[in-house]
Amino acid sequence: MSGPLVVLVGPMGVGKSTVGELLAGLLSTGYRDTDADVVAAAGKPIPEIFFDEGEEHFRALERQAVRTALAEHTGVLSLGGGAVLDDTTRALLAGQPVVYLSMDVEEAVKRVGLNTARPLLAVNPRRQWRELMEARRHLYTEVARATVATDGRTPDEVARAVLDALEPQERGDGPAAPGQETT
Ligand code: S3P
User: Fold this and answer.
1) Domain count of the chain?
2) Is residue 33 part of a domain?
3) Ligand 1, atom 15: nearest CA belongs to which residue?
């Protein structure tokens, strides 16, 4: 079967890129990130796309990047934190080995803080985070086959937990329940 071995979703700063690259190493496969694909297609950094053309335009570029990556990539794929907001993108993820990397608010503030490279969290990060997660948590769990909590874990521990979460599927035991929590 073609398509990615793992698709990582979850909020900005949760470690999708770091964990994704580690996972790709563990699985001896390639790593791809739709944020990077969008930047390449637009020819400018993400904050500039938001500033110049707005979020809706960014989401359209992202939708296209996800569609292409799902069709082309057979390794580990990470999506931008807001990709699940788009109905079409969520539909594209149906049947894919999607894992939701989660973290609580304290971990988020510690990791993302006032990082202005993330335009959606540039002002009042704690409140923005809570609002963002209220709008998105159910979308992450909707598309994901498994949830892996990252709080207090090293990227390597998270990568191994992702493999454990997907293992029943790889053994052919059938898909885990959507939104299944792993320890
Ligand atoms: C976004 C998350 C970012 C990037 C853009 C929008 C979001 O990706 O796609 O800044 O809406 O949460 P990361 O999750 O990789 O930071």
Assistant:
1) 1
2) yes
3) 80
